[in-house]
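Hi R.,

As promised on Friday, here is the backbone we talked about, encoded as structure tokens. Could you run it through your design pipeline when you get a chance and send me back a sequence?
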């Protein structure tokens, strides 16, 4: 469990540092922790959305908004609460950030690559599942 927690904080750390860097470039360095939390929440919801899309295709079920809304709402609430307690309510993420800052450049480059590959895979998977669902629904009619 501790490794999963540390990996979650590392994901936040890498996204936080990336947003911090790009924000400095364009002069918008504010609420970086909130922005990073929002990116993580988006990735989490895209994972849930992908599962719903694949479920619909595999089980030949048309998911209605009435069916999806509670699932997404509950997921949004759960992930928001987790993210709030992990990143907003306490400053424990700052301790982890200091710890991760001490990693060697090579370790951080490897971590950056892993985090971006994961983020890209989640994004491509979500939009791919939306595309497949769209093709499937069009075939039904």
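Update: got your reply. Pasting your designed sequence below so it's all in one thread:
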């Amino acid at each position: 469990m501790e490794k999963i927690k540390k990996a979650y904080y590392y994901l936040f750390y890498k996204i936080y540092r990336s947003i911090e860097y790009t924000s400095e470039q364009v002069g918008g360095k504010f609420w970086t922790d909130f922005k990073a939390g929002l990116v993580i929440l988006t990735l989490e919801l895209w994972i849930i959305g992908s599962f719903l899309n694949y479920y619909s295709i595999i089980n030949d079920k048309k998911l209605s908004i009435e069916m999806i809304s509670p699932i997404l709402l509950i997921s949004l609430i759960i992930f928001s609460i987790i993210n709030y307690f992990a990143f907003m309510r306490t400053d424990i993420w700052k301790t982890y950030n200091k710890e991760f800052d001490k990693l060697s450049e090579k370790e951080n480059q490897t971590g950056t690559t892993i985090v971006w590959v994961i983020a890209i895979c989640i994004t491509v998977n979500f939009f791919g599942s939306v595309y497949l669902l769209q093709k499937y629904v069009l075939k039904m009619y």
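One thing I noticed while checking it: The two ends are 46 Å apart (CA to CA).

Thanks again,
M.
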